[in-house]
Specification:
Pfam families: HATPase_c, HisKA
Domain Histidine kinase: 245-455
Catalytic activity: ATP + protein L-histidine = ADP + protein N-phospho-L-histidine
Protein name: histidine kinase
Transmembrane segments: 204-226
Order of helices and strands: HHHEEEEEEHHHHEHEEHEEHEE
C-alpha cells in the first residue's frame, strides 16, 4: 500500500510538472508571437512609409481637405442639408479614393509589399466652430468617412492617428467678413495584412516545433518512467506471491518429513518391519513431491523443450488423456468431434497442455461440478475447449494469468496450491507449436480455455 501511494504521488507530481512546463511553453510562445507580430508590423510600416508620406499623397490629401472644409462650411451656414452634406462627402471621398488607388497601383513595382496589404485612411470626427459656437458634424460613434483605400473587415493595424485643423488662430472668411470659423477633424490610417497570422507562424515554425518536441519528449519520458515503476511493482508483487506460494507448497511435505524423521528415530519403528517399510515409503513419496516442486521451478528458468512434431490422431490423444485422468470429485464430460482427425503436432507436449488445463479446472471449481472438454475442426484450425463451472476469472486478470509465476490475487490467502507456472508453460508450448491459448469467456459461473492448433 505504501508503494502504491508513492507511485500515485509521483504520478501527481509528474502531471504537475508537465502542466507547469506546458504553461511556461505557452507563455513563451505567446510572448514570442506578440514580439514577432510587432516586429513584422514595424517592418511593413517602414516599407510603405515612403509611399504614404510621399508628396503625391500629400497633394491628393491636401486637395481633398481644402474642398472638404468648404463643404463643412456650407453645412455650418445651413447652405445644404445634412443629407446633402453626407451625399457630397461620400462623392468627394469616392473621387479621392480612385486617385489614391491609381497612385498606389503605380507603386506596386517598386514596393511589392503593397500587393499584400490593404490601406485605409478615414475621418472619425469633425468639429466646426463659427463665432464661438461649436458644431460636431461627425461624431466618433458614427460611421467614419473613408477617403483613402477600402473598408477593412476585422482587426486592422493602426499606422497613425492624428488631428488635422485649419490653424490655431481664427480666420475670416473671404466672402463673409463677419464670419470667423475654426475647423478640426480626427483621422486614422490603418492597414490589413493578408495572411498575417500565417506569416507570423511561419517565422515561428522552428520555435513551435522545438516546443512541441520538448513537451512530447517529457511526456514520453514520464510515461516510460511510470511504466517502468508499474512494471517493477508488478515484479515485486510476483516475487512476493511466488515466495508465499512456494512456502505453502513446501510446507506440507516438509512437515511430513519432520514427522517421519521423528518416527524413524524411535527404536520401535525398526521392531515392526511393516511399519518401517511404510515410513520409508512415505519418506520416498514426500521426497518425490519436493523434487517435483523443485523441477517445476527449475523448468521455468530454462528454454522451452524442443518440439518434435509428427502426424497424430488428436481425437485418440484426447480420449486417452480423458480416460487416464482420475478425478473422483468432479464429473468429466466430453464432446469430441469428429471421430478421427489427423494433424501434425507434438503429442507429448499437447498432452501436457490438456492435462494442465484439466488439473486447473479441478483446482478452481467446486466439488461435484461438471468439467467439459470439447473439440472441433473449423476452417484451418482444430480447437480444444476445457470448461469449468468455478468462480471465473475477472476481465483485468484474463491476460495476466498466462504470465510467469502470476496467480490471481486472493489477499494473503493461499487456499489453492500452485506456483503460477501451469498456464505459463501452456502458453509457451502452444507458441512453439505455432498455435494459441486464450480464454473464450469467463464469468462468475466458470471459465472456458481454448487451444487453437493449426491444421
Amino acid at each position: 500500500m505504501k508503494r502504491k501511494k508513492q507511485i500515485q504521488f509521483l504520478l501527481f507530481f509528474c502531471l504537475l510538472v508537465l502542466a507547469g512546463l506546458v504553461s511556461i511553453q505557452y507563455y513563451l510562445v505567446q510572448n514570442t508571437y506578440q514580439l514577432n507580430s510587432k516586429t513584422y508590423i514595424n517592418e511593413v510600416k517602414k516599407q510603405i512609409a515612403p509611399v504614404i508620406e510621399s508628396t503625391e499623397m500629400d497633394s491628393i490629401e491636401e486637395q481633398f481637405f481644402d474642398e472638404f472644409k468648404n463643404l463643412c462650411l456650407q453645412r455650418v451656414n445651413d447652405s445644404i442639408t445634412l443629407m446633402q452634406f453626407r451625399s457630397k462627402a461620400k462623392f468627394m471621398a469616392d473621387s479621392i479614393q480612385k486617385l489614391s488607388q491609381l497612385y498606389l497601383q503605380s507603386q506596386f513595382e517598386d514596393y511589392p509589399i503593397l500587393k499584400e496589404i490593404r490601406l485605409r485612411a478615414q475621418i472619425t470626427q469633425i468639429i466646426f466652430e463659427t463665432n464661438g459656437i461649436y458644431d460636431t458634424l461627425l461624431k466618433a460613434t458614427e460611421n467614419p468617412i473613408i477617403f483613402f483605400g477600402d473598408a477593412i473587415q476585422g482587426n486592422a493595424f493602426n499606422i497613425s492617428t492624428g488631428i488635422v485643423q485649419s490653424s490655431a488662430d481664427q480666420k475670416k472668411d473671404s466672402v463673409n467678413k463677419n464670419l470667423n470659423y475654426f475647423y478640426k477633424h480626427h483621422q486614422t490610417t490603418d492597414m490589413d495584412i493578408s495572411n498575417f497570422q500565417q506569416k507570423i507562424w511561419e517565422k515561428m515554425f522552428g520555435v513551435l516545433i522545438a516546443g512541441i518536441v520538448l513537451i512530447f519528449s517529457v511526456i514520453l519520458l514520464f510515461f516510460y518512467m511510470y511504466r517502468s515503476l508499474i512494471k517493477q511493482k508488478k515484479i515485486a508483487e510476483i516475487k512476493t506471491d511466488f515466495a508465499n506460494n512456494i512456502s505453502h507448497e513446501l510446507k506440507t511435505p516438509l512437515t511430513s518429513l519432520n514427522l517421519i524423521t521423528k518416527s524413524l528415530e524411535k527404536e520401535s519403528a525398526f521392531q515392526n518391519s511393516a511399519s518401517a517399510r511404510g515410513l520409508v515409503n512415505a519418506l520416498s513419496r514426500q521426497n518425490i513431491r519436493i523434487q517435483t516442486i523443485v523441477d517445476r521451478v527449475t523448468e521455468s528458468s530454462l528454454e522451452p523443450q524442443k518440439i518434435e512434431e509428427k502426424k497424430i490422431d488428436i481425437v485418440r490423444l484426447l480420449k486417452d488423456v480423458i480416460s487416464d485422468f482420475n478425478t473422483p470429485t468432479h464429473d468429466l464430460k466430453n464432446e469430441i468431434y469428429p471421430d478421427t482427425f489427423i494433424l501434425t503436432t507434438d503429442a507429448h507436449q499437447m498432452e501436457r497442455v490438456v492435462q494442465n488445463l484439466l488439473e486447473n479446472a479441478v483446482k478452481y471449481s467446486p466439488e461435484a461440478t461438471e468439467i467439459l472438454i470439447k473439440s472441433y475442426a473449423k476452417d484451418t484450425f482444430y480447437f480444444i475447449e476445457v470448461t469449468d463451472y468455478g468462480h471465473g476469472i475477472p476481465a483485468p486478470e484474463q491476460k495476466r494469468v498466462f504470465d510467469k509465476f502470476y496467480r490471481i490475487p486472493q489477499g494473503n490467502r493461499h487456499d489453492i496450491k500452485g506456483l503460477g507456472l501451469g498456464l505459463y508453460f501452456c502458453k509457451q508450448i502452444m507458441k512453439a507449436l505455432k498455435g494459441a491459448i486464450y480464454i473464450k469467456n469467463s464469468t462468475k459461473k466458470g471459465s472456458t480455455f481454448v487451444l487453437k492448433i493449426p491444421v
